[in-house]
């Protein structure tokens, strides 16, 4: 026990001695032009450079003691385990001592009796008296032997009792000392952990403040990406015939420039939550009924019938806002939903009807709020749709999916690209939708070939026109989204420069837009050289790796005249969308590269 305590205190001493950190002053303002709005962005580029440098310096300074904290926390965890063992040992000792003291009274009584008997026998049974009173030698020998045996037994009992009582008292003294040390050790651990955590929290707060300022300054870049994305008119509903999907690969569409052509193709549209409309079509054509289709995408307890509810439609893009442009019963509202083509299989239509009915009930709180008429909510037109859709509405009259007695928010979109996300674990919110690969039973997605062959919204099933798309295009290249070798080299150089020096971030915008202080291809290459990095001037090949269990591109590797570089998939996507010309974009988490 003493060795364990000594070792624990030694470790604590070494940790404290080795851990010396200068606190960070989180009150310093790293940007002299803070609060000057657009002027700070456009006129004083030194501001963002200083902010980025402050952030880099802080992160570099913080990293060592974050590592130390992690190491200390591991050691503290081990120490706490030792303390737990000590506490268990102390508890057992307390119990043993308590039992010992409970028996002490009887032991002391026995001790007193044995001491008394021992002295009485020692004086009363004098050997001379025994000798004179005995009749023969044999009797004398027996009585003397008996006397000695009794005295020896009494002496042993007395000795053992004294040792037992003394040991019990010593155990009590030792236990009290151990408890004092243990309390001191726990106080020391708590104090040191709190001090270290305070330093780390302070550093993180400081970095968060810098990051926030940088994010505000580069908001123009975020706005640029958002504008490019919105210009694509990505169809979130299957009824649409619009969208910026170029599909330059099947059939191949020649952009007209020489050299290698690179195409960045995304699987599906960004929303993967809930019912996959083209996936539902593929399932219906494979023989599934509406109930099977809905259970493939949603978690719900049962169907419940709703009637007597009025739905109000507004002219905004949200809920309970704008002017009311239409009002009617729930079923009249359902007759006017234009989410999927009327020509689809009846079971796919019925599944969509029930999903749309569940959605409007959930989002309007059973009609208490109004709902918009666009794909921001669900697509509504004032004229009834009629045809097969009207039959699907009639055959499912009033039915909605419920969980816990309430309609679920049954999200859906046109094309998921072979995957379904959970509304609970993946995007936040209640667990109304499932997380799965959207493929037939007995099949899995382990490669792009598996995805193309098996996905319910892919070519062999629902055959969505947005299943595999390169998005955007350039008029000078036959309105295609093909990229030149030099285009891809520039994007790779931009990523390398941003990673080498984060203060250059504000200069790395799209070059064919009128954005002040944007560095062109040649300037980016020179800035890399200035920092000791060899830039690419051309790219010969691009490859990707992906996590097919989740449907996410994890890495992108580019190879060219400067060797090979591998980038994180999300990082590559972000800078691609920022730097790529015109409105060319990667729009989802899973993308692939085509070369021609």
Structure overview:
The structure is a single chain. Helix 1 packs parallel to helix 5 (137-217). The protein has 596 residues and is mainly alpha-helical. It has helices at residues 2-18, 37-43, 45-124, 127-133, 137-217, 219-230, 277-285, 290-297, 330-334, 346-363, 387-395, 448-454, 485-500, 521-530, 569-579, and strands at 262-267, 275-276, 302-305, 310-314, 324-329, 371-372, 399-403, 406-407, 412-413, 419-420, 436-437, 468-469, 539-547, 552-560, 563-568, 591-595. It contains 15 helices and 16 strands. A 3-stranded antiparallel β-sheet has the order 12-1-16, with no helix packed on it. Strands 3-7-8 form a 3-stranded antiparallel β-sheet. A 3-stranded mixed β-sheet has the order 5-4-6. The chain has 3 domains: 2-217, no CATH class; 221-268 and 468-595, no CATH class; 275-447, no CATH class.
């Amino acid at each position: 026990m003493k060795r364990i305590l000594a070792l624990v205190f030694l470790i604590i001493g070494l940790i404290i001695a080795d851990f010396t950190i200068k606190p960070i002053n989180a009150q310093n303002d790293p940007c002299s032009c803070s609060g000057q709005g657009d002027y700070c962005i456009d006129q004083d580029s030194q501001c963002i450079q200083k902010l980025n440098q402050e952030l880099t310096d802080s992160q570099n300074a913080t990293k060592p003691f974050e590592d130390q904290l992690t190491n200390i926390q591991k050691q503290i965890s081990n120490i706490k385990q030792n303390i737990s063992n000590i506490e268990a040992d102390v508890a057992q000792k307390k119990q043993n001592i308590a039992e010992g003291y409970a028996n002490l009274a009887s032991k002391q009584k026995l001790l007193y009796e044995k001491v008394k008997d021992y002295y009485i026998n020692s004086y009363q049974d004098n050997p001379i008296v025994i000798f004179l009173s005995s009749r023969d030698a044999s009797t004398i020998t027996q009585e003397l032997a008996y006397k000695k045996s009794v005295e020896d037994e009494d002496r042993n009992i007395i000795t053992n009792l004294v040792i037992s009582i003394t040991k019990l008292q010593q155990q009590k003294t030792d236990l009290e000392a151990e408890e004092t040390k243990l309390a001191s050790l726990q106080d020391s651990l708590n104090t040191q952990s709190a001090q270290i955590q305070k330093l780390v929290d302070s550093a993180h707060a400081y970095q968060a403040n810098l990051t926030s300022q940088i994010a505000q300054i580069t908001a123009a870049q975020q706005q640029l990406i958002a504008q490019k994305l919105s210009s694509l008119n990505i169809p979130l509903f299957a009824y649409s015939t619009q969208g910026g999907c170029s599909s330059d690969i099947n059939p191949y569409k020649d952009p007209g420039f020489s050299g290698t052509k690179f195409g960045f193709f995304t699987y599906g549209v960004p929303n993967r939550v809930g019912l996959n409309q083209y996936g539902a079509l593929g399932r219906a054509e494979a023989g599934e009924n509406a109930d099977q289709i809905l259970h493939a995408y949603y978690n719900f307890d049962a169907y419940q019938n709703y009637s007597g509810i009025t739905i109000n439609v507004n002219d905004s893009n949200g809920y309970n806002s704008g002017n009311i442009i239409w009002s009617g019963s729930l079923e009249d509202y359902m007759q006017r939903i234009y989410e999927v083509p009327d020509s689809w299989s009846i079971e796919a239509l019925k599944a969509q009807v029930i999903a749309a009915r569940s959605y409007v009930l959930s989002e309007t709180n059973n009609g208490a709020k109004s709902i918009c008429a666009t794909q921001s909510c669900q697509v509504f037109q004032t004229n009834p749709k009629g045809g097969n859709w009207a039959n699907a509405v009639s055959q499912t009259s009033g039915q909605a999916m419920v969980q816990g007695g309430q309609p679920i928010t049954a999200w859906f979109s046109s094309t998921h690209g072979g995957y379904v996300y959970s509304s609970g674990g993946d995007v936040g919110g209640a667990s109304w939708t499932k997380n799965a690969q959207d493929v037939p039973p007995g099949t899995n997605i382990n490669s792009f070939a598996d995805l193309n062959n098996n996905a319910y919204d892919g070519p062999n099933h629902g055959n969505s026109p947005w299943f595999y798309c390169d998005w955007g295009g350039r008029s000078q290249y036959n309105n295609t989204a093909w990229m030149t070798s030099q285009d891809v080299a520039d994007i790779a150089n931009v990523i390398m420069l941003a990673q080498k020096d984060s203060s250059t971030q504000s200069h790395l915008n799209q070059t064919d837009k009128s954005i002040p202080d944007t560095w062109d291809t040649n300037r980016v290459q020179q800035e890399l050289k200035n920092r000791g990095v060899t830039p690419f001037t051309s790219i010969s090949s691009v490859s990707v790796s992906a996590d097919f269990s989740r449907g996410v591109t994890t890495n992108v590797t580019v190879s060219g005249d400067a060797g090979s570089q591998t980038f994180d998939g999300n990082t590559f996507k972000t800078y691609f969308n920022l730097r790529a010309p015109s409105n060319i974009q990667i729009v989802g988490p899973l993308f692939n590269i085509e070369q021609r």
